[in-house]
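[Automated response] Your request has been received and processed.

Submitted sequence:
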Amino acid sequence: MKSIILFGGNSTIGKYLILKFLNSNFRITIAIRRKSLKEIEYIKQSYIDKINLFVIDDYSDAKIKKIFSSHQKKFKIFPNATFNLIASQGEIGPLWENKTLKWKSTLSTNLVLPFLIIKNSIVMAKKNKKRLSIVMLSGGGAAYARKNFSAYSASKTGLLRIVENTYQELYENKLSNLIQINAIAPGAVNSKMTKEVIVAGHKKAGKKAYDEAIKTIYQKDKVLINIYKLCQFLIDHKTNKNISGKLIHVNEDYLKNIKKIKSINKSEVGLLRRINYV
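Generated structure:
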């Protein structure tokens, strides 16, 4: 029996992944804010034996450890993976027009919270001596500049560096065969964030971001199945050859790269890097 802990389940991606994993006979603990409970209550009623809801409105080391304990108590097993889907797009518009408190809040949600999840996931995996795959969600502007989304893109770039650093620390401490950590670039998804861009308009968001949001509203949901397939890949240690410390886009041929590159974790594929001046 396989199981996961999922932080945040009320997003478009979250609801889709929950249903796909449940239909693949996974057990799931969903850590979710009280105000979002109603959005997934209908799922629990249909899969009452496979879901463990953990209501949490503020995060701390102790509370994240309690989520793991709750999962083990309910399902009698340690999770195969932890997924963090919680994110905030934050202020949209030129940096100098952003409200300072909202800017800080975005960094807290997108950077400090993932730090707490990653830290305590590792602590619990070490304590239980169990294999664990930690999966973070990247976003637009993480690997390149994204004007008018400074808080979001800066925090997501920081998250990718945390993923890289954490892998190196796990490797140095001989824990990289026990614990994997990676980030997923999901691509454009018709979500709450997409609607926020449209509401902001092309003057604040910029013409490129606005046009992309309009296009995303009408696209088919093929991207969601690609996200699920990548999540499944990152849980399967044998297939993914213990890949770790990487940013992987859902539309990349990661299976081909795994076979082609002998030492994937030693390569610079999927890493943030500066191009030197010549």
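Summary generated for your ticket: The CA atoms of residues 33 and 56 lie 5 Å apart. The mean pLDDT is 89.
If you did not submit this request, please reply to this message.
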